[in-house]
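Key result, reporting period 2: structure in, sequence out.
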């Protein structure tokens, strides 16, 4: 009887171990069971480009369609809220950026969600400093010239941004505050219409990530004055940083990452992180992103979560210092 009990106990332990291993394997091998939505909360931007680079690669891995949906408005809050309200089952993802994840927390009097509680970070995909560009018809040739003409003509010039509360918006507000000039802000719903109006001369200046304006700079339709990073771009070594141009210690960075609704099981978040990191670091994808002047990060979920909290504090201070408001 004693031997029987020992054998039974051993069998139970073995069965439990087998079941646990089987469950762990199933979780590690999780895949979506239906098409997945990737919501981009802004129209015509590098966020959209990144989503459309990554989506087909995810489709190859998981064998399900990954459909990119653009849902702009309210500085990215509308699209982000759509994801927040979605089922946390791995079938809805968000392409998030500075605006709805960090800046809007302070910029808007009321936020419809809390980015630190209502979303599950997957990976901080890329970072990028911005280009300060102007329409050539302004005759502006340098940062110093830009500041001098803006000061001499208060209210005459306007600048476009990809959306209210974006880094495109707040970076110019930082510059206005640091250099002491006035300029009217014209927010758009995405980089496409903002850059189009800048090229057409309907606005005179703007900060945009390189991928949004590179082609127009090369064609001479836009004049590149400076970059907002701490170092010059390898592809434009003759273009100074704003810090080099007289605005000491000036630095502003745009970034993009992937998130899921809060409550998404950890094994699903980790599976997406595992595959996205592979995709972002693959030679083909990385080459395309580097060509767009992106720094590939491909972080862990924890690193992205910590980054969002840091950025909320940093951009919150910028907003308080500049007096920027959601118009």
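The corresponding designed sequence is given below.
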């Amino acid at each position: 009887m004693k031997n029987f009990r020992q054998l039974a106990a051993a069998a139970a332990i073995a069965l439990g171990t087998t079941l646990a291993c089987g469950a762990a394997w199933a979780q590690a091998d999780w895949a979506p069971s239906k098409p997945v939505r990737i919501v981009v909360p802004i129209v015509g931007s590098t966020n959209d480009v990144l989503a459309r680079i990554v989506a087909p690669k995810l489709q190859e891995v998981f064998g399900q369609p990954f459909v990119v949906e653009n849902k702009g408005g309210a500085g990215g809050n509308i699209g982000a809220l759509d994801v927040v309200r979605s089922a946390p089952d791995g079938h809805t993802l968000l392409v998030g950026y500075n605006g709805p994840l960090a800046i809007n927390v302070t910029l808007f009097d009321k936020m419809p969600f809390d980015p630190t509680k209502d979303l599950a970070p997957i990976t901080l995909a890329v970072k990028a400093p911005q280009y300060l560009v102007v329409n050539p018809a302004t005759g502006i040739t340098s940062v110093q010239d830009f500041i001098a003409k803006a000061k001499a003509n208060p209210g005459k010039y306007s600048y476009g941004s990809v959306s209210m509360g974006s880094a495109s918006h707040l970076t110019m507000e930082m510059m206005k505050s640091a250099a002491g000039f006035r300029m009217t802000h014209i927010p758009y719903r995405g980089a496409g219409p903002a850059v189009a109006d800048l090229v057409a001369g309907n606005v005179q200046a703007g900060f945009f990530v390189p991928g949004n304006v590179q082609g127009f700079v090369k064609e001479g339709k836009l004049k590149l004055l400076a970059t907002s990073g701490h170092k010059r771009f390898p592809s434009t070594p003759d273009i100074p940083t704003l810090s080099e141009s007289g605005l000491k210690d000036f630095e502003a960075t745009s970034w993009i990452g992937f998130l899921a609704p809060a409550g998404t099981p950890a094994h699903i978040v980790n599976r997406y992180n595992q595959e996205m990191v592979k995709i972002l670091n693959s030679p083909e994808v990385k080459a395309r992103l580097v060509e767009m002047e992106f720094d590939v990060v491909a972080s862990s979920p924890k690193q992205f979560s910590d980054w969002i909290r840091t950025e909320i504090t940093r951009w919150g201070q910028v907003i308080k210092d500049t007096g920027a408001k959601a118009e």
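Confidence is low (pLDDT under 50) at residues 19-25. The longest strand covers residues 119-129. This case is discussed further under Risks and Mitigation.
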